[in-house]
Amino acid sequence: ALPGEIILWLSKQEASSAPCEEKERTLRDAGTCVGPFSLLQPNDARAWLNAGAHHALFAAGSTSGDTAALLEALDHAKSSEGLPAERLVVQLDVSVRAEEDCQSVLEVVEALAAKKGSGCRECEYPKTVGIVSGVLIVLAPSAADADAEARKTAEAMLFASLTPYGKQDRLTVMVAGFESRVGPSAVAEFHKACIHLAAPATLGPVDLAGTSVGAAASPAEASFVPPPFTEKTPLVDVGACLAACTRSDRPDKMYATLVDELSGASLGLVYSSDVSLSAAVRKGRGIYWSRSRNSLWEKGASSGAWQHLIRIQLDCDSDALRFVIQQHGVPPAFCHRNTLSCWGYPTGMRELQATLQARMLSAPAGSYTKRLFDDPILLQQKLVEEAQELAEATDRDHVAAEAADLFYFGMVRVVAAGASMADIEAHLDRRALKIARRPGHAKAARTQAADKILADAKLAKESKAVGGNAVQSQSQSQSQSQSQSQSQSQSAATPTSHNWLPMAAMLGFVIAMKVLYRDLSEVVVSYFPRGGLARGEGLTPLQPMSDQHLDACPQ
What we know:
The protein has 19 helices and 15 strands. By secondary structure, the chain is of the alpha/beta class. Strands 1-2-3-4-5-6-7 form a seven-stranded parallel beta sheet. A hairpin with a 4-residue loop joins strand 10 and strand 11 (266-272).
């Protein structure tokens, strides 16, 4: 739930090996900048970027004072491993004793920055990125006999010189080691200047000395100081810093907070305060401020519909917050009306997923979806069949209709396996971060397997049809004599054209009841299948539905 990118600092051994499971999970769950890597071994950075790291941090090392040598090393690293500039960050170490010490690093920054920014600090595209996307400028700690006033003046000059790069979106600027600017107020100052402050952080409050307040850390945690920091580097309270960066023009100083799912779907609008922000970050839960009760509101504390907090974001002018959460509960409901969203029920793929999950637990009699859950062979055949029909579709609407059929069967498979749309989107997001790409050629073995599945399905359908005809011919002779005697005994039969009236009355009653319960869509699906009738295949309500027509509208 950190409101920014996490710098995952690696030892030399970790940097040269593949990420472990725990670190891979960190890469998946948060935006990470991983490093530092050596410019002489760019293949290590490539492996971590492929694993899901957003940025790779390269240590300039001995080239930090030689601009030409640094640019040459970066060019070789990018070309040899295909590393994109928008995914690279360079660490520049600076010894700050006076203003003159900052001039050399500013020359390097100018050489690395884009000539013109994109106008959007959130956008990093190759055309708007320079040699790299960002820099991490690390200021060395002051010596015991250093001139404190000279250090303060040098830091002020460096701060003023770096501000235009961030504000004009020419370069993402991260700094560490500023001694004259510490604490939440300093973080807010950096935030307004579009500069990111890198600092060791805690999720709880800290005292004036920068020491974490609360439960004592384990010996391993207490002794670990991530470079480039020292034991004297104060911790920052993430919640307090986030509140300091957020502004409000309301008399009560509340912040409008949009609550979103990881997919981007909005669940509702709430309000946050400085206190609730700190509590939310510390507990990793959806915690807000109740204006009616004038107190903290931890969502789900009494109802059980709690929220796992994934990320907090500020909008472009820092006067509104966005909580990205995972909603829990049975059902997972954010609204007090027991719906997921305060804006009603989901639509599209989300509605389909919710319906399939409900059918998995309890399906009405004759449910085709339940039949698919219970018959994996049938589901496999329909997946292959619909994929083929999508591949063969030509016009725009036909393609969309066939894709809808394939998505339906695909989501049945997803729900049956216990997966969800969020899992699918997470895989897509991770693949978008990969650098290495496979050729993507068709696999002959899979094509042959698909052909066999289709052939088996066709054979099974033909066998079923032959069996049905045999039974029908055997029963025809038995029914002829019965029908003759019945026709003689019926002196006044009801006209065939009126046989639909009782069914229509029953159907009208059911539809009326379903409308009252806001479930009309299920009635339409059940009585007028969304296939032949909607696509004009020549059916009328009185004609029987053949197997061909039923397959065209599986819902």
